[in-house]
Amino acid sequence: MKKEKNLTKNKIASAAWRLFSERGYEDTTIDEIVEESGTSKGSFYHYFESKDALLGSLSIVFDEKYEELKDQLDPGMSAVDQLIFLNQELFLMIDNSIPLELLTRLLSSQLITRSEKHLLDRRRTYFRIISDIVSGGQASGEIRKDLTVNELVKAYAMMERGLMYDWCLSGGDYALSRYAKEIMPVFLKGFQEKN
Description:
Number of strands: 0
Shape: globular
Number of helices: 9
CATH class of the largest domain: Mainly Alpha
CATH superfamily of the largest domain: Tetracycline Repressor, domain 2
CATH topology of the largest domain: Tetracycline Repressor, domain 2
């Protein structure tokens, strides 16, 4: 039953973000979101009290992307290369299909909300996949063990959020994925076990 509820919520969020990307946030109505998702208005209001409440659901879209990418990970890649691959693919998605205005709204809503901070929810697919990669890297001796998996995952997530935040502050005047391609390998060197 819980899985079915999550499926409905995810359908609504995914449909909303598709429409936001195509038409813009202001020009998308709740009726259009309901129609696009194949759900009902009652379902919409069961999960989201308003259209603004959908802003926090971008993490669902990100997690769907991570689920898709998980199956594309090459087990022969190093843990650091897997993290770089995931980062690049997520940031390419942001560059190509998430309007700057919406990412800015999401980040600002997470700063002022008193309720759940979706981006920090450790139950997310995002955190599970990153934790598995870091844990595997520690087990193989590639990633340092003087920090816990949780500490390393937190640092990685902070770096990604920081890059997104800076991109929003800069008005998207550079390609997020291209900048991350340069900076993430430098950052992730600090994750590697010293020989």
